Amino acid sequence: MRIASLVPSATEMLFALGLGDSVVGVTHECDYPAPAVGKPHLTRSVIPDGLSAAEIDRAVRERTERGAAIYELDARTLRELAPDLIVTQQVCEVCAVSFDDVSKVAETIPSEPQLLSLDPGTIGEVLADIRTLALAAGAPEAGERLLADSAERLDRVAASVGGADRPRVLALEWLDPPYAGGHWVPQMVELAGGEDALGLPGEKSRVFEWSEAQAVQPELIVSMPCGYATERAAEETRAHLDRLAALGARRVVAVDASAYFSRPGPRLVDGVELLAHVLHPDRVPAPPPGRFAELDVATAVT
User: Which pLDDT score is estimated for 298?
Assistant: First the structure.
């Protein structure tokens, strides 16, 4: 089977299922695992490089409000690849190419590919998508193995943090303007042994006022700017450290959001394990280096 993946999380899932050789095309953001990087790219971003967080937010809002796409699809390359299965999504209008654009192109491909949209809003739905994708790709047994492994790891975290105090966590999905993490993020916090201060499970991430965050008195701030790895997340967070320190949290941590929080794929389990260590270092082993950075709140001017 020839598979075109138009979502980074689906690409990760396909490789985790052992189907990397069947993947014939990916997005320009598919950077994991390493073999995915060399696959033909089927998308590109129309948002210029080098913008600040506020400028990115304004550019995205401006385009989405007038119904313009954030990403463009390379329709010619997609047709040439003649996939049997195209994996896309509709859950986030700023995360992938337009589903309608993909559908229109798919109708013109002689191979008559199946179009599969993965649109999870919760951890349970992310795990269910493993089974859905595995079935569509003809690898049901691999899907069940990956599901079982993911569930076992989550159960292990739950057992490790069971009975511990649950710190209030402010999960920041963006900083300018501030967004509270939504979709699966509040569940990740809960599974890791914390209490999400502003996010709601299964709901979209949302803009909030800093006064609202101060009112809930977070004990830990986890900065996870959507699409940023640890170094970029830490840099962005340091630029707002004075504001974050004023919220009264004892700790501020920046994480590799791109790998472990933004993408609804298998590595969300790694994200739960990472959070569990940050929240309960005496109960959960540390993740490999580079996955998070602790910022010194004492250096902030409040």
Answer: 77
Low-confidence spans in the chain with pLDDT less than 50: none
Q: Return the pLDDT at 94.
A: 52
- Cα angle 7, 10, 16 (rounded to 5 degrees) comes to 145
Q: For position 137, what pLDDT does the model report?
A: 97
297: CB partners within 8 A, 6+ apart: 241, 244, 245, 249, 250, 251, 252
Residues 119 and 54 in one domain: yes
Cα 194 from chain centre: 19
**pLDDT value at residue 95:** 55
- Specify the residue for token string 């004492």: 298
**Residues 125 and 180 placed together within one structural domain of the fold:** no
Q: What is the pLDDT of residues 167-208, one digit of tens each?
A: 999 999 999 999 999 999 999 999 999 999 999 999 999 999
Output b/e per residue, 118-128; b: 16+ Cβ within 10 A. Answer: bebbbbebbbe
Spatial CA neighbour of 135 closest among 148, 154, 116: 116
Rounded CA-CA distance 39/24 in Å is 6
**Domain enclosing residue 248, as ranges:** 165-299
Would you state the pLDDT for residue 87? 96
- The alpha carbon dihedral of 241, 191, 14, 92 has a sign of negative
The Cα-based distances of 89 to 49, 115, 128, 272, 297 in angstroms read: 24, 10, 15, 23, 38
For residue 33, give Cα distances in angstroms to 9, 18, 175, 203. Answer: 11, 11, 28, 29
Q: Is residue 9 part of a domain?
A: yes
- The single-letter code of the amino acid at 138 is G
